[in-house]
Amino acid sequence: MKFLLLVFITLSSLTLMADEPMLRATPYKFVQETIGKGKPHFVEFGSDSCSSCQIMGRKLYKIKKTNQAYNIEFVNVKKERQAAYEFKIRMIPTQVVFDQNGKEVYRHIGVLRDDELENIFNTYKF
Question: Among 1, 17, 67, 112, which is least packed, fewest CB within 10 Å?
């Protein structure tokens, strides 16, 4: 009985860690309206059902939580197909950085390492 209880507690703990919050989706219309309004934007194009996108979503959630002034958005291209078309998203996750004038200055496909993310936010003066 003790063994079953230990297994249950262990599995519950692993499930809770997997359910760590990720960045919530931002409506594409909002992203369109705010890019180029004087501050850089980091936009993650992905899906809530993609495991690599979920990893990035958790990383970006942590960054946004500690740096609330950063413009970090997640566009769910599974639900917002027009965004994928307009931004020429071919694979997910794709990260795009826009400067304060709305010009695309960086694009990456896949999961970014923590040091790469830190470098992006330092380089583009978020």
Answer: 1
